[in-house]
Amino acid sequence: MADLVERLGQRFPGRREQIEQLVELLGAADEPAPGCVFVYGPSATGKTAVVRALFGEYGREGRRHAVVSGVECFTVRLLFERVLNAWAGHVPTAAGRYGNYARCDTVVDFVNGARALLQGRGGEAHYIVVDQAERLRDRGATLLAALARLRELAGANVAVVLLSTVVWDKFRPRHGGAPDPHAVFFPYYSKEQVLAIIARDCPADEPERFFLTFVDAVYEVFHRNCVDLNELRHLVALLYPKFVQPVYERQAARSEFPRLFKLCQPYFAAASERLYLREISSGEWLKHSAVASAATAPEDVTLAIHRMADAGDALDLPYYTKFLLIAAFLASYNPTRLDAQYFARGPQQGAGGRRGRRRGPAPKDATGGGSRQQLLGPRAFAIERMLAIFYSIIAEPVDSSVDVQIQIASLITLRLLSRASAGDRLDGVKCKCNVGLETIRAISRSVRFEVDRFLYDFS
Amino acid sequence: MAEAYRPMDAYDSMTDSTFILKPPGRQGGPGGASKGGALSADGGFVRLLQGREPAESLALRRRLFEEMWAPLEALLVEIEREVNSVGILEVCDFVDSSYAQIETSEKGRLAQPFAEVAAAVAFAGVNTDDHGKLFQSLQGQLQARGHHVALLESQYCGLQPNMHRCVLEQLFGSLHADLDAGGSASEPRSVAYDLGLLGLWWAAARDRAKQSGSSAATTTSKVVVILQDFEGFPPMVVDDFIRIATSYCDAVPIVLVLGLATSYECVQQSLTKVSISMLNVERFNLQRSKQCIDTAIRRIFVEGAAALLFGAEAYKSLLDQFLLYSFSIAGFVKKLKYAAMDFFYAHPLSVLAGMLALPLGASVGACPIRLCSDQIELVRMQRSVQRFVERQAEGEGGKAFVRRALTDDAFLQDVVLPQMLRRLVAYRQGYCVGIDMAAEIQALAPESARKPVRTLHYYGLSRPFDDCAHWKALLATVRRLKPAEMALLLQGLSRAAERPAGIDWALVSEDGTDVPRALRDAAEMLADPDKAAADAPTKAAAAGAPRRTRARTEVAGRPLRFFDSAISDAQLCALDKCCEAVEAVLRVCLRPYHDVPLSEVFYYRHSHLLDTTFSAQPRAAVQTALGRPRYYIDCDCCAPADAKDGVASDDAEGEDQRIMPTMEDASIAYRLHQECGRMINVYDWYTSFASVVEGQGRAAPSQSEIQARFMRAVEEMRFLGFIKATQRKTDHVVRLTWGA
C-alpha cells in the first residue's frame, strides 16, 4: 500500500496527503468499504486525475469499479446501467445489438440488480466513482440519498466516491436521509507545486531551467487573476514558442532574460486576454501566430493578433432591423419619461431639433450614480414603445407591415432581444435588448445614425 | 346558387380558426381531371380578355411560363450553390484536416495540455430561412468525403436526451447496415442513446474496416455534428454536449460545426468558460446572400436571362424586401416567381414573350401564334407603341406606314411588332453593356463611391441619365484621369462593349450611335492627339482655346490636369474629347426604359401587388374589415347620408367614425371595445351596444333579441381572438390585442 502511495505521489506532485487519505479510506479489497467518500476542491486541482489513477491501479489489482460522469449520465438509467455493466464486466457489442447487462430505469431496479449481481461475490468491495457529482442533484430527489446509503440498500460491500467542485453543504438532501460522507479536500496548488507540474510539459529539446524561468514569470503575472492550473498550462503552451523564438532567430541569447521578455511583451499585452477568453482559439493561434515574428515591429504583432481575433466576425443585419435593434437599445437604457424630449417631433422643438438632452434632472455627478441604467443592465420595455421609437428615429415613413413584426420575432430567436414576458402572452410583449453599447455604436455607424445624441446619461 | 351552398357542419369547429374553402363549381369541369386540387386542368390559367382569348394563346402562355420559370429556378439554385461553394469547401477542408498535427517550423512547441474538440464556427448571416438549404448542402459535401454527419435543428434538441437521440439516429442511419448486421430483428432497440454507444459503434466500425482492409476510409473520416441554428439551442444543452464530446474525442474524432446567425459574441455569452475552453474554434464566413443576390440580379435582370424584367418600382419593392428586412434569398425567389406568375397568368400580351426569342430574319410563319384582334388592339393602346409609330411617321412613306399600322392587324403583327421587339432586345443588350461600362469606370473610383450591381441597376432603371448623381460622379472620375489611365479605361470599355456578340447598335438608340466605334475613335484620338488636332484644325482652334481656359478656371472638376503641366494642350483637348465620348456612350446605353417600345408589357409594374401580397398589414386589414365593413361587404346602408348622394362632404371622416346601427353586430362590438381599456366591463359594453342598436328609429328590436345579438357578437370577438374571459374581475373580459 505504501508502494502505491509512493508511486502515485510521484506522479502527482503536492497531492501525496490526499492520496494517502484516499487509500486509507478505501482500504483493502476484502475490508469493509466506507459508504461514501466525497472528494471536493476547486477545479484543476487534480481530483479527477488522482482518483482515476488510483482506481486504475485498483483495477489492475482486480477490484471492480465504475467511473461515470454526472454530466454524461443525463438520465439515471444511463448511470445505473453503466455501473452494472462495469461491475459485471459487460461490454456492449454490435453482435448483442449494444444491449446492456440489465435494464434499470429506477433506483429500485438498480438496487435489485446490484443485489443479484453482488450476491455471489463474497463481500469483495465494489466501487462507483461519479465525476461532476453536483449534477446528480438534478436527477431526482432520492438519487443522492440512495447512493450515499447504497451499502445498506444493496446489502453488499459497495463504496461510492463523489467528485465535485461544490461543498457537501450544497448537496445534503433537504430532509436528511443521507449520512455525511467522508470528505477529502483538494486545495489549490502552491507556486512550487505549479512549477513542478508545468515543468513536466517542458519540451525535450529545451533546457528545463530556462523553461521554468518563463513559467515563473507567467505565474507571477497571472496568478492573482487565475489560479487554474489548466489555464496557466494553456497560456504557457501557446506563449512559450514566442518567447523562445528570438533565440532561434539569433536576436537574443538564452541568458538575456530582460531582452527576451521585452521582445515577448506585445504577445503578453495583446494576446493573453484573448487567448484566455478563447477569442483566439489554440488552433488559430498555432496556425497564424507563426506569421507574426519578433523580428518584425511590435505594432505588426499587435495588429496581427487583433486581426486574428476579429476574423469574419461582423454582425450584418438588414437596414430596418438595425434600426429596430437601435430602438430596442434606446428603449432598454433610456428612461421612459424622457421619450417625449428625445423623440417627439413637434413644432415646439424648433429648428434646433431634439435638444432635450440634459433638460431632465441632471445626473448627480459626472460619473453617474450607482443607479445608472447601464450599470443595472437593460430594462424590459413594451414592444409598442420600441416601435414608437423605431418610427421616430427612422428617416423615411415605413408601413407597419407584417415584415416589421417578423423582424422582431427573428431578433428574439437570434437572442439579440430577449423576451421578458411570458411566452403565451400575445399582447403587451415585453423585451430586453441583449446587445452591448459597442455593438450598437458599430451598427449605428453603419447606418449613419448618431446614437449618442439619443442616449441619456451615457458618457 | 343551390350548388354553391355548403352545409356548415364541416366549418363550425370551435378549435380550428381557419378553413379552406374551395371555389364551388370549378371541380366539375370537362373531364374532371383535377381531383381535389384547386387548380383546373389548365393549371390555373383562365382565358383573359373577358374570355375571348383564343385557346392556343392560353396554351402558349402556359408553355412560356413553364419554359421560363424552370431554367430560371435552376439558374437561381445554381447561383446559390456556386456562391456558397467557397465557404462550404473551407469548412470541409477544416473537417478533413482537424485533429491532425499542425506542421510548422516553430521551435519550442509544447504539447497541448488538455484535449480540445475541433469546432468550426460558421457565420451564415441572419437570413435564417435560407440556412436549411445551406447546411444541407454542407452535409451532403461532407458525406461525399466519407464523414458521418448529423445535422441538428434546435427545435428538436430542447433537452439533452433528445439531442443525443437526434445525433445518434442520424449517424446510425448513415451506417444502418451496422445495426442490421448485428441482429435479426429490425425494430428499434430500447437502448438509451448516449455517446458511449457512439464510441462503441465507432470502435466496432473501425475494427471491421481494418479487417476488410479499407483502412484509409475510416482513419480519415470524422463524426461531424452540425448545429444549424446555434442561437436557438438551449445554452445548457449545448454546454453539456460539448463537455461530453470532449471526454470522447480521444476515442471518436468528433467535429462540431456551429452555425451562427449573429456574431461570435453569442457563443461567448451562452457557453460557460469550461466548455468554451474545450473548443478549438476556427471561424468561417458563409454569409454571402448579398453576393448571391448581386449575381442573380446581374444574370437575370441585367443580362436578361428571363423574358420578364422588373420596372423601377417593382424592382425597388423586390430589393427593399431583401435589403431592408430579411436578406432572404428564398423570399427574393418567391417574389420573383409570384411576379412571373402574375405576368403570364394575367397579362394577355405575355404571349409576346414567345416572339422575343425569334431570330432576326425569322419568317412570318415562325411566329408561334397569331394574335387575336383584342390583343392587337391592346398592343396599339400601349403608350410606347404609339410613340414608336408616331416617330415612324416622320420618315418617307411614314404616313402610309402609320395608317397601316393602325388599321391593318396583319401588318402590325408581321411588320411593326418584330421591329419593336428587335428594338427592345437591342436596348436590353445595350443596357447590359452600359452597366458593364459603369462597373468598369467604378473600379477606378475610390472605395466609398463604388456601388454593387443591384444599386447600379436600380439607378439605371429609375432615373433618367441626367438626374442621377451616381452617373455624374462616375463622369467626374473619368475627368480626373491621366492620359495613360484614360487609354486603359477606353480599352476596358471597348472590351465591355464588344463582349456580347451581335448587338445591332443602330437599334439601340434613336440616333443609332455605334458605341464600339465611338470608343475606338476616342482611343485613337488619345493615342495620337497631335494628329487629331491637325485633322480638325479649325474646330480645335475654335473650341480648344476657350475649353483650355475653362479647364484652368474650373478647378474642382479637373484637379489633376490643372496641376499636371506635363500634359500638352493637344492632349488636354483629346482628353476632353474622350470624356465627352464616354459620356455620350453611357448616355446611349443607360437610357431609361420608358421610351423603348413595349416596355410597358415586359417591364413588370405591379409593385403594389407584390407589396400587398408579401408584406401583409394585418392590423390595418382587421381594423378596416371590422371598423369599416362596408368596404368588404359592399353595401350602401352604412354609408354616410350625404356620401350616398354623391356629394363628398368635409366631415366625411367624422361620419366614418360614427357607429351606425345598420352595421354588423360584430363590427359594432369591435368599435365599442376599441374605446375601452384593458379590462372591459361586459355590462357597460352591453348597454352601449344596446343604445347603438336601438338607435335606428323604426322597429327597435326587443330586449331579448338585443341580448342574444350581443352575446353572439361577443362570442365572435372571443373566437377571433380579440378578447378572452378572465377570473380577475367578475363580469369583465380582457382585451388581447393592440391594448390601450
From TrEMBL, chain A:
Ranges annotated as spanning the membrane: none
Domain of life: Eukaryota
A GO term from the CC aspect: nuclear origin of replication recognition complex
Chain ranges of the Origin recognition complex subunit 5 C-terminal domain: 317-455
UniProt domain ORC5 lid: residue ranges: 213-277
GO molecular function, one term: DNA replication origin binding
Stretches assigned to the Orc1-like AAA ATPase domain: 11-161
Any one of the GO BP annotations: DNA replication initiation
Keyword Nucleus: yes
Keywords associated with the record: ATP-binding, DNA replication, Nucleotide-binding, Nucleus
InterPro entries: AAA_16, ORC5, ORC5_C, ORC5_lid, P-loop_NTPase
Family annotation (Pfam families): AAA_16, ORC5_C, ORC5_lid
Protein name: Origin recognition complex subunit 5
Annotated segments matching region Disordered: 346-373
Compartments, record wording: Nucleus
Sequence similarity: Belongs to the ORC5 family.
Organism of this sequence: Coemansia javaensis
Keyword Nucleus: yes
Automatic annotation (TrEMBL), chain B:
PANTHER family listed in its UniProt record: ORIGIN RECOGNITION COMPLEX SUBUNIT 3
A GO MF label: DNA replication origin binding
Gene name of this polypeptide: ORC3
Highest taxon listed in the record's lineage: Eukaryota
Record key words, sorted: DNA replication, DNA-binding, Nucleus
GO cellular component: DNA replication preinitiation complex; nuclear origin of replication recognition complex; nuclear pre-replicative complex
Species, as recorded: Coemansia javaensis
Region feature Disordered, mapped onto this chain: 16-36
Gly residues: bias regions: 26-35
The protein's name: Origin recognition complex subunit 3
Subcellular location field: Nucleus
Origin recognition complex subunit 3 N-terminal domain ranges (all copies): 10-352
Origin recognition complex subunit 3 winged helix C-terminal domain mapped to chain residues: 619-738
InterPro entries the record matches: ORC3, ORC3_N, ORC_WH_C
One example of a Gene Ontology biological process annotation: DNA replication initiation
Family stated for the protein in its record: Belongs to the ORC3 family.
